[in-house]
Design a protein that fits this description.
The complex is a heterodimer. Chain A folds into two domains: about 290 residues, 7-stranded beta/alpha barrel, CATH 3.20.110.20; about 80 residues. Chain A is built from 16 helices and ten strands. The relative contact order of chain A is 0.16. About 0% of the residues of chain A have low confidence. A seven-stranded parallel beta sheet of chain B has the order 3-2-1-6-7-8-9, with helices on both faces. About 0% of the residues of chain B have low confidence. The chains are: A alpha/beta, B alpha/beta.
C-alpha cells in the first residue's frame, strides 16, 4: 500500500542591496532590509499563514491521519522572527499535532557541501540546534539545498546522525527502476527518498496551466492517479516549494480548494495513507542502491547545478566567498554571520544567465534587473568585505 | 513579385546616420524577393549598389502650392522634402514604372509617399526610424510634427523599428495601435575589414582601458551624461580613456563639462569616423556605452556586440527591448552608469559573460528574416 510523503521547502534568502562601487568602504549593511521585509510579509500573507492554518485544520479533521514534512531554513526563521513572528507560532501549532516533521539542512541554504566539509557540518549543526529549540525535534532526514545529492555525502550524514536523505528521482540514474521505493546510498548507511517529479510537478508547476490536457486538476483525479501505484510502489514523494500554495499558484487557481480536499480523497482510497519522511523509512524496506558520483539537484530538466554554477560570474562569486573561510575563523560572530548570509544559494541563482533571453525573462523570479547586476552588487560587497577583513 | 517603390532619403556613404545604413541593408535583402526600386531625392555618385536606384528629378517643374505648407512658408531642406513626391512622379511617368506598393522611410520620404499614394492610388507604408518627438526630446518643430502626423494618418500601415517608437506614435500622434507593426532593424553579420587607428594602438600599448561612445554629439544621444561619468570612473580606474567618435553641436558643452570635472585629458575626440577606421576603434575598445536620452532603435550597440564588446545602454534605447544581455541604465543616473562602467572594466567575469551571451543574441537581428517578414506584410496589403 503506497504512502504519500509531502515535503515542503520553506525558504527565503537575505537578499543583498544594489551595492555600488561608491558604497565600498562606507556602507556597512549589505542586505536589503526593506526589500526582504516586503517579500517576506507578502509571502507570509499569501502563502505561509493561510496554508499553515489549512494544514492544521486538515490534520485535525482527518483525525491526525494527514501528515507533512517541512524543510525550513535558518535564514527564513530569522526573517520570520523579524517581520512575521506569527508564522513561527503557526509552525509550532502544526508541529504540536505530532503530524509534522522537520528535516535537517544547512542553516543558510548554502552550497557549502561543494566547497567546505567543515562549514557544511557547522551549518547543519546550527540548523539542528534551531529546530530542536523551536520544535523540540531531532531531524533524522536530511534535505540538502536544492536537494543536491552525491555519494560522498553519505559518511558525513551518517556521522551527524541522519538516517536518510531526500533527493530528485532522476530518470538516468533510476533507469528502469521506480522512484516510488526506498533506496539507500552505496555504503548502505543512509536511506534515500526520491522525489516523484511527475506527480510533484503536476501540483507545483502544471496545476494552473490551461495548456495541460489534465487541466483542471481535481483532488479526486489526483488521488486516483496515486492509487494506481498500488502494488508497484510504496512511497509517493511529493516534494515542492511551500510557496506553491498561494504564491506560485494563486488562490484564484483553486490551489487551496485542491489542498483542502486532497487528504480526504486520498484517505478515501483503499490502502492509501500519509506518512512523514522518517516514518516512511521505518515502514518500508530498502529496495536498491541510488548512486551518483557527481552532484544532482531537483532543478530544471538538467537536474544539475548549472542554475547556480553555470557561468563565470557564478563560479567567481562562489570561489571568492569560500576562499574567505580561512580568514573568517578568528573573526567576530557578526562577521561570521555576514559571511554565511552571503553563502545562500539564491545569490548565485540570481546571477544565472541561461534563461535570460527572449521571453524567458519571466520564467524565474529575480529581484535584480539582470543577472549582471546581481553579480556586480555581490562582487562590490565582497570588495567591502575584503576591506573589513583587511585582505587586499 | 510585387513592384515596390521604396522612397528613401539617404544611402551610405552619403549618410548622416543610421537611417541610410538601415535603408541600404533592408533594400539589399528585399531586392532579391520583390521588384524593388529605391529612390533618392537627388542624384549622387553611388557605386556598386545591389539594387536599382531612381533619383528624383533635380528640376522642380511644378512648385506652386508647395511653397506654402499649411500656411507656413518653407524653403531649403523642407522644400526638398515637400517637392520630393512631385519630382519622383515625373520620373515614374517618364519611365512608365509599374508600382504596387509604396514604402517610404520616415517623414523625409513619407511626405512624397502621401502624394504618390493619392496620384497612383496604391497602398502606402511608412517605415518609422525615428519620430520628431524622439529626435528633439519632446520639443518638436511644429511643421515636422504635423507632417509626420499626416504621414501616420494617411499611411495604410506603419512600421516602427522598436516598441518604444510604436508607443510614441500611439501616444503622441494619436494613432491606433492596430495600425502599427514593430519590426526591429537588422545588422550585417559579416565582420568587415578593419584597421587599427594609430592613437588606439598607442593607448593599448600603454595599458589604458578604452571606453567608447559612437554617435552624433547631440542632445538625443546623451554624450554629456557619458562624459559626466568620467570623474567617478577615473577614481577607480586611473588609466582610462574615453574615446568619442562623432561630431555635433554639443561638442563645446562636452568640453566644458570635462574641463570643470578635470578629466579633459582623459578624453579623445576622434571626430566622425566611418568604415575601416570605425570598425578598428570598435575592435580595440574595452566597452561601449550608448547613453541615449532617446533612441528609437540603436544600431551602434549591435555593431559593438558584433565586435565582441560588452555594452551599456540607456533604458530609452529601443534595441534594449530585444537585446537582453547588456547593462541597462537610466540615462540621467550618471553614478549608476559609472558603477556599471567600472564593474565591466574591473570584473572580468562580468565582461566575459556579457560578451559571450550578447553575441548569441545577434541572430535576432537578421536582415534576411526582416525582408521575409516585409514580403509577408506586402502580400497582405
Amino acid at each position: 500500500m503506497p504512502s504519500i510523503c509531502f515535503y515542503f521547502k520553506v525558504h527565503q534568502p537575505f537578499r543583498i542591496k544594489n551595492y555600488t562601487f561608491f558604497d565600498i568602504g562606507s556602507e556597512e549593511n549589505y542586505f536589503d532590509d526593506e526589500k526582504n521585509k516586503f517579500y517576506l510579509t507578502r509571502i507570509a500573507n499569501k502563502c505561509y499563514i493561510p496554508t499553515l492554518k489549512l494544514i492544521y485544520e486538515l490534520i485535525k479533521n482527518t483525525n491526525f491521519r494527514f501528515k507533512v514534512t517541512f524543510g525550513i531554513t535558518g535564514t527564513l526563521i530569522e526573517q520570520l522572527e523579524l517581520w512575521a513572528p506569527e508564522v513561527i507560532e503557526l509552525f509550532k501549532k502544526v508541529a504540536s499535532t505530532g503530524c509534522a516533521e522537520f528535516t535537517g539542512e544547512t542553516y543558510y541554504h548554502s552550497l557549502s557541501c561543494l566547497y567546505s566539509k567543515e562549514e557544511f557540518i557547522e551549518q547543519i549543526l546550527m540548523h539542528k540546534k534551531l529546530i530542536r529549540s523551536l520544535f523540540n525535534q531531532e531531524p533524522k532526514v536530511f534535505s540538502n539545498t536544492e536537494l543536491i545529492y552525491f555519494d560522498d555525502l553519505e559518511e558525513i550524514l551518517y556521522e551527524l546522525g541522519f538516517e536518510a536523505i531526500i533527493t530528485e528521482g532522476v530518470d538516468w540514474i533510476l533507469g528502469w527502476r521506480s522512484p516510488n521505493f526506498i533506496y539507500q546510498m552505496p555504503k548502505g548507511k543512509i536511506k534515500v527518498l526520491l522525489r516523484n517529479y511527475k506527480l510533484s510537478d503536476d501540483i507545483s508547476f502544471r496545476f494552473s496551466s490551461r495548456e495541460w490536457d489534465e487541466w483542471p486538476l481535481t483532488a479526486d483525479k489526483f488521488a486516483y492517479w496515486v492509487s494506481q501505484f498500488n502494488g508497484n510502489g510504496e512511497v509517493i514523494n511529493l516534494f515542492m516549494d511551500f510557496e506553491t500554495f498561494g504564491e506560485h499558484q494563486w488562490p484564484e487557481t483553486g490551489i487551496f480548494e485542491f489542498l483542502s480536499a486532497l487528504p480526504f480523497e486520498i484517505l478515501k482510497q483503499k490502502d492509501l495513507n500519509f506518512l512523514t519522511l522518517s516514518e516512511a523509512i521505518k515502514v518500508y524496506p530498502v529496495r536498491g542502491i541510488y548512486s551518483s558520483s557527481y552532484p544532482i539537484t531537483w532543478a530544471d530538466t538538467e537536474r544539475d547545478l548549472t542554475a547556480w554554477l553555470g557561468n563565470e560570474m557564478q563560479k567567481d562569486a562562489l570561489e571568492r566567498i569560500y576562499s574567505l573561510e580561512k580568514y573568517i575563523k578568528n573573526k567576530s560572530p557578526q562577521i561570521k554571520i555576514i559571511w554565511r548570509k552571503l553563502q545562500t544559494a539564491d545569490h548565485f541563482y540570481y546571477m544565472c544567465t541561461k534563461w535570460f533571453a527572449d521571453g524567458d525573462v519571466h520564467k524565474y523570479f529575480n529581484p535584480y534587473e539582470s543577472p549582471y547586476i546581481a553579480y556586480l552588487s555581490y562582487r562590490n560587497i565582497l570588495e567591502d568585505f575584503y576591506l573589513r577583513l583587511k585582505i587586499s | 513579385m510585387k513592384n515596390v517603390l521604396m522612397i528613401g532619403w539617404e544611402l551610405p556613404p552619403f549618410n548622416s546616420g543610421g537611417l541610410g545604413v538601415a535603408s541600404y541593408y533592408l533594400a539589399s535583402h528585399l531586392s532579391k524577393k520583390v521588384n524593388l526600386i529605391f529612390t533618392l531625392p537627388k542624384k549622387l555618385p553611388i557605386k556598386n549598389c545591389p539594387f536599382k536606384i531612381l533619383f528624383a528629378d533635380n528640376e522642380i517643374k511644378i512648385i506652386e502650392g508647395y511653397r506654402k505648407y499649411k500656411g507656413i512658408l518653407v524653403n531649403g531642406f523642407l522644400e526638398e522634402v515637400l517637392t520630393y513626391g512631385i519630382r519622383l512622379l515625373q520620373k515614374i511617368k517618364e519611365l512608365n514604372l509599374k508600382i504596387d506598393i509604396i514604402h517610404a522611410h520616415d517623414w523625409l520620404g513619407g511626405v512624397a509617399g502621401i502624394y504618390l499614394k493619392e496620384k497612383l492610388n496604391k497602398p502606402f507604408i511608412i517605415h518609422v526610424h525615428a519620430t520628431e518627438i524622439e529626435r528633439t526630446g519632446n520639443n518638436p518643430n511644429p511643421i515636422i510634427f504635423k507632417l509626420e502626423k499626416d504621414c501616420f494618418e494617411k499611411a495604410d500601415l506603419i512600421i516602427t523599428v522598436s516598441e518604444l517608437t510604436k508607443n510614441i506614435v500611439t501616444e503622441f500622434y494619436n494613432i491606433p495601435k492596430n495600425k502599427i507593426i514593430s519590426l526591429p532593424n537588422g545588422i550585417d553579420f559579416e565582420i568587415p575589414h578593419n584597421k587599427i587607428p594609430q592613437f588606439i594602438l598607442e593607448l593599448k600599448k600603454q595599458g589604458y582601458k578604452i571606453v567608447l561612445f559612437v554617435g552624433r554629439l547631440v542632445l538625443q544621444k546623451g554624450p554629456d551624461y557619458f562624459v559626466r561619468t568620467l570623474k567617478y570612473v577615473s577614481e577607480f580606474i586611473p588609466k582610462i580613456k574615453y574615446v568619442i567618435v562623432g561630431s555635433g553641436d554639443m561638442l563645446p558643452e562636452i568640453i566644458k563639462i570635462a574641463y570643470y570635472d578635470n578629466v579633459l585629458d582623459k578624453i579623445i575626440f576622434a571626430g566622425f569616423l566611418r568604415d575601416e577606421e570605425l570598425w578598428g576603434v570598435y575592435n580595440y575598445s574595452d566597452l561601449l556605452v550608448a547613453p541615449s536620452v532617446f533612441d528609437p532603435f540603436g544600431l551602434v550597440p549591435l555593431e559593438a556586440v558584433k565586435f565582441n564588446l560588452p555594452v551599456i545602454i540607456s533604458k530609452t534605447t529601443g534595441v534594449g527591448y530585444y537585446l537582453n544581455h547588456c547593462l541597462k541604465v537610466d540615462f540621467w543616473d550618471v553614478k549608476m552608469m559609472a558603477n556599471y562602467i567600472i564593474g565591466v572594466l574591473k570584473y572580468l567575469p562580468l565582461k566575459n559573460e556579457l560578451i559571450f551571451n550578447s553575441s548569441k543574441e545577434l541572430y535576432k537581428f537578421d536582415w534576411e528574416e526582416r525582408a521575409n517578414r516585409l514580403v509577408e506584410i506586402y502580400s497582405k496589403l
